[in-house]
Amino acid sequence: MEAGREFDSPMYHEAVAQFDRAATLMGLDDNVTGRLRSPQRSMIVSFPFRHDDYTEVETIFGYRVQHLTTMGPTKGGIRFAPDVDLGEISALAMLMTWKCSIVGVPFGGAKGGVRINPLELSRAELQRVTRRYTMEIINVIGPEQDIPAPDLGTNEQVMAWMMDTYSQHVGHSVPAVVTGKPPALGGSIARREATGRGLMFLLPRAASEVDLDPVGVSVAIHGFGNVGRYAAIAGQQMEAKIVAVSDISGGIYNHDGLDVEAVAKWVDENRFLEGYPDADSIDGDSIFTLDVDILVPAAIQGVINKDNASDITAKVIIEGANNPTTLEADDILRERDVFIVPDILANAGGVTVSYFEWVQDVQKYFWTENEIVARLREIMLTGYEEVHGIAVREKVDMRTAALMKGIQRVADAKLVRGIFP
User: Fold this and answer.
1) CB burial class (10 A; 0-12, 13-18, 19+) of residue 79?
2) Beta strands 280-282 and 250-253: pairing type?
3) CA–CA separation, 319 vs 30, rounded Å?
4) The CATH number of 194-344 is which of 3.30.450.20, 3.40.50.10680, 3.40.30.10, 3.40.50.720?
């Protein structure tokens, strides 16, 4: 049976189309294909939310989707955004399954979200939304069941509130119920930087595919949130030249390279990039067409599409955001021999260190930062080499190769477990 109209969204169609393309090339069993196209469990909740002025009680919608429980507990972020819907969350849960599978993390994919704009909320309002949403989904989350993490519009503080709410409900502290929380509550050192740092571990390998010297390579990053910021910092530490970054207020550009630490300090003090004095202001979308060697989309989905793909001059795209490139753009870029490191491989550093955090919480034994970074580097580089090997052997692009690797491991597990009853 096909997924119903409740999953009808552009992003869900994109995710399923990517899966179908890879499954066809693999000759995947039709029964397994049908099972993996739809999420295993989807939850829609609505709940009352009062603003600080208490003149109105608004009804808010939230979601939690678990794509696959075959591999172990499910894992995935919580996003707060005004356009969140079930289709988007389902697509992201599916992508999370492949991501975990590619890097060998023993989780299935999940995702959650609340349809609200966090930028319009006070701290007290954000806390009320978080705690009430946690209570609405509390029966489907847990350290052995489903483990949330931060995503778009959420952060360490939101995870702390979720962990506290869950712990109050069960009557004792449960740090392992979420990851991406502050270290004071059992969060892992280096989790905040993990996605951006893991992405940049792959830059030298990707650059070598198109004969670029990674030292001094020019990089533009779309997005300066958690992923983009730490990708920029890690890239500069690796002697790449970060020439442009952007956020919702616009972009900044310096041909000679930005002082990333100074940019980060400006954002900490002023919230947005707008007004940063030591660079040229540019339109945020123009970052895609800058004359750079490497482009890193690190904000939201669908930003590289048929309208701008032909104008991209970068030789390499390393995807930090989830699903930033549409299928139409993928085809255009492939024809132009642009080398793409896909999101389900490139941004897997976040879930990898989330797994480390969960393991540390469960064992109540914490690792050093050097141990975490070394293990992250090893897993990311191993994942890259395995995906690249499939791409060469099967004569496919890196996205298709990554999907083939992730899907095959899940399919094997499903076939071994069989069907109950």
Assistant:
1) buried
2) antiparallel
3) 30
4) 3.40.50.720
- DSSP letters spanning 318-342: E--SSS-B-HHHHHHHHHTT-EEE-
Residue with tokens 């270290």: 183
C-alpha 240/C-alpha 28 separation (Å) is 41
Cα separation of 221 and 244, whole Å? Answer: 6
Classify domain 5-173 at the CATH topology level: Rossmann fold (3.40.50)
Write the CB contacts of 235 (distance below 8 Å, at least 6 apart in sequence). Answer: 200, 203, 219, 221, 242, 260
| Angle at CA of residue 94, ends 178 and 120, nearest 5° | 55
For residue range 143-177, what is the model confidence (pLDDT) as tens digits?
Answer: 999 999 999 899 999 999 999 999 999 999 999 99
Over residues 19-32, the mean pLDDT reads 93
What residue segments make up the domains of the chain, in order of their start?
5-173, 194-344
Q: Which residues pair with 79 in a beta bridge?
A: 113
Active site residues: 111
Cis peptide before 214 (omega within 30 of 0): no
